[in-house]
Amino acid sequence: ELDRFFQKFAGQNQFRLHIGSTYVAILADEIVGFVTLSATSITIDDLPEASRKRLPNYPLPALRLARLAVAQSARGQSIGKLLLRATFAIAHELADRTGCVAVVVDAKENAISFYEKYGFEPFEIITGNLAERPSPVPMFLPLGSIPRE
How many domains does the chain have? Predict the structure, then answer.
């Protein structure tokens, strides 16, 4: 699915539609991973109570991590971590230029623990009578908790 996204949509999304930018990780002249980022907004109603402090009650700018993938052959080499760190650097740059309060991602079930390891938390989700989280799980990481490198 991610190979298909990278090959078919990443280029057109970036250069023709201007709805996202894709960054690649290259090792020994081979693409071993990529991350696609886009602008988004969140509201304080989406956030847990503790994260709402001092934030205004209108749409807040954020950076959406739309896709992150690492080639099977490169797993275990910290490529995902490096792509995430690059995402954090871009989020800080965006905050300086136009504003950004968080990085958000819709994490698939098998990736939730990866994002939690870096401090991402699930959004407050109103699910009615549902006891389970929806899949994918919307998660966020406040920019203030991401150190500048």
Answer: 1
What are the pLDDT digits (tens) for 55-92?
Answer: 888 899 999 999 999 988 888 999 999 999 999 999 99
From CA 37, how far away is CA 47, in angstroms rounded? Answer: 21
DSSP 82: H
User: Are residues 71 and 31 in contact, defined by beta-carbon separation less than 8 angstroms?
Assistant: yes
pTM for the full predicted model: 0.84
CATH code for the domain in which residue 50 is found: 3.40.630.30
- Return the closest-CA partner of residue 107 out of 67, 60, 53: 67
Q: How many CA atoms lie within 13 A of 30 on its CB side?
A: 8
What range defines the domain where residue 34 resides?
A: 2-145
